[in-house]
Predict the 3D structure of the following.
Amino acid sequence: MTRAPAIRARCKECAGNAAEVKRCQFPDCSLYRWRGWVEDKAAPGVRLTRRPAIRAYCRWCTKDQTVEIRLCPAIDCALYPYRGSGSPGPDSVRAASPRRVEPNRGFVFGGA
Ligand code: SF4
């Protein structure tokens, strides 16, 4: 999977289905511009590419705790392989964490 389908997969997880992704009402989301097969013009003049869009989304997800992006335990998240600055790969998978992650709600500390 490359970044584009990873973003679409994450948006589908977030919105529930492809039709809802198309009708997304959150243009402030860093992934908004990249959610469809055809890029829309929602952010003219903004030079955001997929990599920083994913990075920005992960920052939102972790409430700007950048170290948590690197330590992210949510290996099922579609953006997981692309959350870092390097090439995607399974070698960055971390051992089980005491934290749990609820998609679209960010980290919940102290969970089981
Ligand atoms: S769960 Fe992890 S990989 Fe997914 S958006 Fe949040 S920080 Fe990024």
